[in-house]
Structures are given as structure tokens and as C-alpha cells.
Amino acid sequence: MKYTITLKLVLFCFICAFLAVSCVKEGPEGPAGTDGTDGTDGMDGADGQVTCLACHGSNLIESTQAEFAMSEHRAGAIAVDYAGGRKDCAQCHSHEGFVQYAEFGFVLGDIISPSAWKCSTCHGIHKTFESGDFALRLSDAVTANFDNSVTMDLQGNSNLCANCHQSRTGEPEVTNPGEETFTITSTHWGPHHGPQANVVAGAGFAEIEGPVDYPTAGSSYHLTYNGESNSCVGCHMGNFSSVDTDGDGTADISAGGHSWIPNLAACIDCHGTDMEDYNYGGRQSTTKTQLEELRDKLIALGVVSGDETNGYHPVAGTYPTLYARAYFNYIGLEEDRSLGAHNPKYVNALLTNTLAALNAATE
Question: Binning pLDDT at 50, 70 and 90, where does residue 239 land?
Fold first, then answer.
């Protein structure tokens, strides 16, 4: 009992002391100290709407879409319906396949519901809302899919096109080097449709020896001119405009922009002469004559069959390798569809030498 009273007394004294201290009044505040040095001014932030307004604040989107509506790439029927869903084809034949290829380096699998190309096929859109947001997905030089020892550099943005516009198939001396005969296995054998990058780069065709020297790969006039890239973008995406293409005094649509229809105005600007079509110096006329001569020669040799209505295709069978190489050049340059305009010197060398070799072998 004695200890309990003592403990309570001590506790009571402690509480009283605590209350006495807490009730002490705080003294008056002293004078303010000297202000510190101002901090460094921050940088002005970017206007949050500037990047958006680059497209959305003008008629850019509408005009680009109007141009794109003229392009076969927009329709998709030429490729998507047939091959857009196949894993091995989707890289170039559907929006989803190309995006997968650009992101991962390959297509993950069959595309169940493939769609045609759109803005975001080639461009990355609305990821960071900064200036690089709309950059092309791919622009580096391309390793050729017909021969991985070959690199094709069509200069900057044009390399995007080269990812798809290749032959895919290698010519016989690449796939079967040194063999005297070559077996064409089907009516579909040969370079894939649209090997324009091969032609522009001057690579991937059967360079048969003959009287005309082949230009150095990558030296085409249509790759660079006066130090500036022409290539795909320079010719096919020149400012969308119209020129008088038939000489009647009325401006006709020459296209360009995102229609990818080659702009005749760009040709006129580079060549420095009036042109009513793409047949500069008669080169397309000469190429057309050479292609027809080569086709007829191959028909006579039994390598090619068909007609103007149904098209021409190879006849499956085993032939001298020269014949197969000649067919490769014929169908590849037909599928290029520029009649030599993409690389006149290279195309002339291919056709002149191929015809000379076939004539010598069959005399």
C-alpha cells in the first residue's frame, strides 16, 4: 500500500511538470533573415497543341487522304484479299503483317482478319505526341530477301518501299550456281510481283555477259541527282500537282504525294525539259520493243506460253540455265512496270545482253 501511494504521487508530480512546461508562452518572433538567392529559371514548356496542330490544324489530313484514295495500296484488293492473311505473305500484303514485321522483324503468324494499308501502316502514330511521333516505321537500308549478301540502299525514306518491292526469288546463278540446267517447277516461278527496288538499286537480276557493261550497283541516276535523293520518294511523291500531259492547254492530274503515281512535274524539273509522258529520250519505247522481242524468243524456245489476254507464264520443265535466266529477266522487268524508267542503263544492259546471249546460243 505504501509503495502504491508513492508511485501515484510521483506520477502526479510528473504530469503537473509536463503541463507547466506546455503552458509556457512562446516569446516574440525575431526579425526575418535575408532572402536566399533566386533559383534558376526553368525552360518554357512546348505548347501542348503544337504537335497535334501540325496535322489537325490544317487540311493536311484531308488532302493526304484524298491522294491516298487514288493509290492501289489503299484499295488492297490487289493483295490483301489473296495473301494478306498468310504468315509468309502478310509482311507486305496487309496492314497487320507489315506492322508486325516492322516491330518484331517477322510476322508472328497467320492474320485472321487482314486489312489494307492505312496511315499507320507506314507511320507510327500517336504514341508520344512529340515531333517524331509520325516517323516512318522503317527507313534503314534493306538486306535483300533474294540474296542476304546484298544490301539495297534507296536513300532514306525510300528504303521503306524496298522492304516489299523486291523479287524475293533469286536468279538461277544465285540459287543454283554453276549448273548447266535449271528446272522451272511451276507456272508461278520467277521474281515476285513488283521488284522495283531491284531495278532502282541495279541488283538481283541475271547479269548475263554481253556487249553492254553493267553500271555499278547503286549508281542509278534515279537514286541521286545533284546530291539529292530522287529514288521512290522524289519521283512518286513529288508535290501533288497537275500538268498539261497531253498538250491541249489544259492541266491534267499528274499526281504525286500519297497517291504514289509518279509526278510528271518532278520528271520535268529534274530533266529540265518539257515532257508529255515518262518516255524520256524514247527509252520506254526501246525497252518495250526489247521486252517483246525477248518474250517472243522465249515462246519460240518453249520456255514461255500465253497471250496478251491471259498473260504470259513459264512452262514447267528443265532448260539450259541461260533460258531460265533469260525468263527471269523478262518477267522481272515486265513486273517492274516502268519500261526502263526506273534505271535506264541497267535495264538496257540486261535486255541487250540477254538477247545477244540467246541469239548466240540458238544460231
Answer: confident
Rounded CA separation 167/144 (Å): 9
| Cell numbers that stand for 26 in this block | 512562446
Tell me if 344 sits within 8 A of 282, measured CB to CB. Answer: no
CA angle centred on 251, ends 250 and 254, rounded to 5°: 145
Q: Counting beta carbons within 10 angstroms of the beta carbon of residue 268, is it exposed (0 to 12), middle (13 to 18) or buried (19 or more)?
A: middle
Residue 138 confidence class, pLDDT cut points 50, 70, 90: very high
Task: Provide mean pLDDT across the span 227-241.
Answer: 78
pLDDT tens, residue by residue, 162-215: 999 999 999 999 999 999 999 999 999 999 999 999 999 999 999 999 999 999
Cross-strand partners of 243: 252
| 183 SS3 class | strand
**Residue 53 CB contacts under 8 Å (≥ 6 apart), including other chains:** none
Residue 262 to residue 259: CA distance in whole angstroms = 8
Task: Report which of 63, 107, 65 is spatially closest to residue 87, judged by C-alpha positions.
Answer: 107
Record the cell numbers describing residue 176, joined without a space: 543454283
Strand ranges (E), the chain: 142-143, 151-152, 181-184, 224-225, 228-229, 241-243, 252-255, 304-307, 311-314, 317-320
**Does the pLDDT of residue 283 top 60, yes or no?**
yes
Predicted structure pTM score? 0.81
Confidence of residue 13 (pLDDT cuts 50, 70, 90): low
Question: Which amino acid does the sequence have at 249?
Answer: G
Distance CA 226, CA 224 (A): 7
